[in-house]
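Pilot study result, target chain (152 residues):
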Amino acid sequence: MGEIRGEIQRLTEELIERQELDGTWRFCFENGISIDACTIILFRTLNNDKEDLIRQLHDRILAAQEPEGCWRWYHDDKEGHLSATVEAYYALLYSGYSKPEDEPIQRAKRYPGPGRHWARRKPAHQSHSGRHRTERLADLLIAHPHRNPAIA
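Predicted structure:
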């Protein structure tokens, strides 16, 4: 029993040492919204009925949006990332809890600035080789609007 208590004490001390000044812990798996976005897309694609979780993930993604409309991969990034923004945008719409006319969606659509927005109505008709996964995801979701009434 002494070994178990000793190990519990050691792990407790390690957790306390790793705690940030603001009371949080930041570990490597806490990196941006990508996992949340992919989870929403996966659950909706599989018709999974975990509505409470989907809503929580939606709200967490929305809360991480920067004022200029983008999302960042890491909390300490100096600039937003287009890939993270596209993933967040489509996950929010695919969740069904955000609509295309919602202000946060419109801000994301305008990122990275005037005349440079990335959202388009028709998928690109080019080879998928060498294209970034975000472009492929955007094309897939636009090409199959029947799978998501929010972007039809």
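One observation from the pilot: The first helix runs from residue 2 to 18. A full batch analysis is planned for the follow-on phase.
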